[in-house]
Amino acid sequence: MSAALTVSDSKRAFHSAFPHVIAPLYRRMVDELLVELHLLSRQRGFQSDPLFAAGLIQVFDSFARGYRPEQQREDLLAALCSASGFDAAELRSQRNTAVAAIGQHSVTEVEQWIQGQGQGAPEPLASALANIQRCDFHYSRLMAVGLLSLLEQAQGADGLEPANLRRYAHELGEAMGLLRDRLDKDLGLYAGNLEKMAQAVALMEETVAAERRKRERQQAGVSGAADGARERPESGAEVGPAAEGAEVDVAAEGEPAAGAGESAGGV
Fold first, then answer.
1. What is the rounded CA–CA span in Å between residue 248 and residue 93?
2. What is the pTM of this model?
3. Residue 72 and residue 20: Cα distance in Å, rounded?
4. Cβ of 258: how many Cβ atoms within 10 Å?
5. Is the bond leading into 69 cis (omega within 30 degrees of zero)?
6. Judging by beta carbons within 10 Å of its beta carbon (0-12, 13-18, 19+), is residue 217 exposed, middle or buried?
């Protein structure tokens, strides 16, 4: 991409590729990834590698969980990536290859590869370690998330507590040459914001369910009133339609109440 392109150019390209309304809950995630991918694409020292691919896909899949309509999720990712010159399909393929490779080995083996600066490591991790050793290497927080997400796939990782696994990722990242302070900050923010997002999605889903139950009760009440009016004996007075003037909530299903869709923190 041309170095003259701005964030505004990337945003226009995104909205051209994805001309759909984005629910408020997901707008901050979209804005932050748009800006981050744009800035990374401008960095001469940045190179996409399996750690970056794993981190980006992990962040998107985690923070886009619950996105509706579901069939637009991959289109959303594709538009986010293409707006800054990245290929979403290629990045997901890189991530899947790395996950498959790491999943065949233990946490201990991963540690040995890192301490040996990639010696004996399968290609996805070997290329990532080689990338970090470059003198013009440019770090991204997505690489920290990628390291953690790949470590979670190693054999034996499921027996570790999440906090211990993050601590292990910090130590391995430091051994790889990444700054521990940056890792601590980036992984801490990721975990905290992910928890907030999960709570916000749960609240939104509960709000939608509550609105649905409310409409069902109102509709049942209107139907019951109409049936009662038809069965009531004539008293000499003209009986109009029982449902006339009754107010029924016809809000679109899936639309949360005010405040339920507010952004739940960054990614």
1. 48
2. 0.76
3. 9
4. 8
5. yes
6. exposed
Tokens at 232, concatenated: 């009531």
Angle at 202 between CA 260 and CA 66, to 5 degrees: 95
Domain map of the chain by residue range? 8-197
First and final C-alpha spacing in the chain: 25
- Which residues, in sequence order, are CB contacts of 84 under 8 Å at separation 6+? 1, 10, 34, 37, 38, 40, 41
Task: Record the tokens describing residue 113, joined without a space.
Answer: 């590869």
Orientation angle between helical segments 88-102 and 50-63, nearest 10 degrees: 100
Work out the number of other CB atoms within 10 angstroms of the CB of residue 231.
7
Q: Is the pLDDT of residue 124 over 90?
A: no
Per-residue pLDDT tens over the stretch 14-38:
999 999 999 999 999 999 999 999 9
Q: In the beta sheet, which residues pair with residue 155?
A: 106
